[in-house]
From TrEMBL:
Residue ranges, annotated region (Disordered): 317-341
Residues that, per the record, bind Fe cation: 76, 78, 120, 122
Cofactor binding remark: Binds 1 Fe cation per subunit.
InterPro entries: Pirin, Pirin_C_dom, Pirin_N_dom, RmlC-like_jellyroll, RmlC_Cupin_sf
Protein name per the record: Pirin family protein
All copies of domain Pirin N-terminal, residue ranges: 41-137
One Gene Ontology term of the molecular function aspect: metal ion binding
UniProt domain Pirin C-terminal: residue ranges: 190-311
Keyword Ion transport assigned: no
Protein family according to the UniProt entry: Belongs to the pirin family.
Upper classification of the organism: Bacteria, Bacillati, Actinomycetota, Actinomycetes, Streptosporangiales
């Protein structure tokens, strides 16, 4: 869903890609966030994470559902990013300030490029089960002020057979290229496996990668070779994975795989779906606060002021309600930090 950060007191998040140091296997536990107040929708946020802030240009992951919910997210702003909406179950109506109105359904990609400024709303037309994932992609400095625009893709390239297939949402994978607009070298794909099915997916070694289970349960082969030929892997709240080991993955944590891999091997313990995310390590520092991605605290403050008083973000027609007010800026001054901890 194109929903955004509706926390009442969002904290500044300063992100930069950490250097991809080769293949690893780290289970990154998410944190539960309730959007829209205590009675709002609960999501599991695995990016940004304490241990890994980005995977390529992917800088934000909220996984939600399955849960019965009546969604009504008022118009709110975005800058410097793309929102990627992918549903497993349910329907959401998207409206934005460039005049788009689109019903999002499972298996269809909604991609909104905020560029210099956009606003949008999301709502379900009735109380229904919602299940899916919301992702953000940071735009590079050279493209972050592009004109805002919206894409909806019903037809996406699919690889594989009946019991194991891959839908390419963003970027290119094994010769199949998504029609979605990208601004940095990256990949996003949904992998669907029947129970007991296995798949081997080619990867770009210069990309860092991660996988997120949406449904089902999987074994992920996590061989990790070092210069001495011994495999090591560390995890957050998980057992160590050794050379040729298998990491168990089900909905919840994000499995960060690092770089230097030329393939990914999966086996389904239970039928289900996973997201594969990857890209070249993002070299630029970014500040994420509320629904803005910027480079300096002054920029973030200016975005907030413009949303509160100005017109740069346009208007969203058709939503029955007032725009979402911006939270108060944090008391502690926002400070850019280096890309390394």
């Amino acid at each position: 869903m194109g929903m955004s950060n509706l926390e009442r007191d969002p904290q500044e998040t300063i992100c930069a890609g950490t250097e991809a140091e080769g293949p690893v296997a780290e289970l990154l536990a998410g944190r539960d966030v309730v959007l829209g107040g205590t009675r709002g929708m609960k999501v599991t946020r695995t990016l940004p994470n304490r241990d890994r802030r980005m995977v390529g240009a992917w800088c934000f992951i909220d996984y939600y559902g399955p849960a019965t919910h009546l969604m009504s997210v008022p118009p709110h702003p975005h800058t410097g990013l793309q929102t990627v909406s992918w549903l497993v179950q349910g329907e959401i109506l998207h409206r934005d300030s460039v005049g788009s109105e689109q019903l999002i359904k499972p298996g269809q990609l909604n991609l909104m490029t905020a560029g210099r400024a956009i606003s949008h709303s999301e709502e379900s037309l009735r109380e229904t089960v919602l299940h899916g994932v919301q992702l953000w992609v940071a735009l590079p400095e050279s493209q972050r002020n592009v004109a805002p625009h919206f894409e909806h893709h019903q037809a996406l390239p699919v690889l594989g057979g009946a019991d194991a297939n891959v839908t390419v949402l963003m970027g290119e994978l094994d010769g199949a290229t998504s029609p979605a607009q990208t601004y940095t070298p990256l990949v996003g794909a949904e992998i669907s496996l029947d129970g007991g099915a296995e798949i081997r997916i080619p990867l770009r070694p210069d990309f860092e990668h991660a996988v997120l289970a949406l449904t089902g349960a999987f074994d992920v082969v996590t061989e990790t070779e070092t210069e001495t030929g011994t495999g090591t892997a560390t995890g957050t709240g998980t057992e160590e994975a050794r050379d040729g080991a298998e990491t168990f993955l089900e909905p919840g944590p994000l499995l960060y795989l690092g770089s230097g891999r030329d393939h990914l091997s999966l086996r389904a313990r239970r039928p289900g779906r996973l997201l594969l995310l990857g890209g070249e390590p993002f070299e630029e520092e970014i500040i994420m606060w509320w629904n803005f991605v910027g480079r300096t605290p002054e920029e973030i403050a200016a975005y907030r002021e413009e949303w509160t008083t100005g017109t740069d973000f346009g208007t969203v027609d058709g939503f029955d309600g007032s725009p979402l007010p911006a939270p108060t800026l944090p008391v502690t001054p926002m400070k850019p930090r280096g890309r390394h901890r």
